[in-house]
Design goal:
This protein is α/β, with parallel strands linked by helices and 229 residues long. It has 2 domains: 92 residues, Ribosomal Protein L25, Chain P (Beta Barrel), CATH 2.40.240; 90 residues, RNA Polymerase Alpha Subunit, Chain A, domain 2 (Beta Complex). 14% of the residues lie in helices and 34% in strands. The strands form 3 sheets. It has a 7-stranded mixed β-sheet. Strands 8, 10, 11, 13 and 15 form a 5-stranded mixed β-sheet that branches. Strands 9-14-12 form a 3-stranded antiparallel β-sheet, with no helix packed on it. A hairpin with a 6-residue loop joins strand 6 and strand 7. The longest helix is centred in the N-terminal third of the chain and has 11 residues. The protein is elongated. The two termini are 27 Å apart.
Length: 229
């Protein structure tokens, strides 16, 4: 658990549809539950304070939630978000047994891209599952990609350095990121096909979904993983 990391809450008596009053007042309703909590505790937190806290610490950081009459080490288990305004609507705070290992999903953040690397960095996973005691769970796991220089170089789960007391549940061979060949389809190439008199309909009929011959990479995405230079 991050030393001294505390989020303030207030006990909550408004339930059901009445919680709209709390949201209008800038507060977010939530509940505290878990194997070490005899009964679910209803609380609220200040919305802007929570948003800053969640942005900095995420789901996998153990911290202390304090309210009048109680305090409990918790994780942020789930945040329900307004689909239009993207503001938090409800929060589940999970109070774990600190002496029992658990499994959590932790984001992977890539660092130190090599400025001389060939090709394009492509990411396959943005997070992995790890296990360990609650207090050992990291906010994020850092991946060093400075060694990725040539096309085909890759970073896999087994290459990560995990905190003491934390082990990877995700298979060590799972791909996180790799360098692929850079390809460019120019406007001139596309126009040359038209100049040669080959209509788009004919290309489609022949099953040429990729008429310019651009190589495709399967099973990877090109966005979603934070890369810190």
């Amino acid at each position: 658990m991050a030393d001294g990391l505390v989020l303030r809450a207030e006990p909550r008596t408004l339930l059901g549809k009445k919680v709209k009053q709390l949201r209008r007042a800038g507060r977010v309703p939530g509940v505290v539950y878990g194997p070490v909590v005899p009964e679910t505790v209803s609380v609220t937190v200040e919305r802007k304070e929570f948003q800053r806290f969640f942005m900095a610490n995420g789901h996998s950081t153990l911290f202390t939630l304090e309210w009048d009459g109680g305090r409990q080490p918790v994780f942020i288990r789930e945040v329900q978000v307004d689909p239009v305004k993207f503001t938090p609507l409800h929060i589940d705070f999970f109070a774990p047994n600190l002496r029992k290992e658990l499994t959590a999903t932790v984001p992977v953040v890539l660092h130190h891209p090599n400025p001389g690397a060939a090709g394009v960095l492509t990411t396959a996973r943005t997070e992995i599952e790890v296990s360990g005691l609650p207090a050992a769970m990291p906010h994020q796991i850092d991946g060093d990609i400075s060694g990725l220089v040539a096309v085909g170089d890759s970073l896999r789960v087994g290459d990560l350095t995990l905190p003491a007391g934390v082990t990877a549940v995700t298979d060590a061979d799972e791909l996180l990121a790799h360098l692929v060949a850079e390809t460019v389809e120019t406007v001139e190439e596309a126009e040359s096909l038209v100049a040669e008199g080959e209509p788009a309909e004919a290309q489609a009929a022949e099953g040429q979904d990729n008429p310019a011959g651009v190589p495709e990479t399967e099973g990877v995405t090109t966005s979603g993983t934070a890369v810190d230079a």
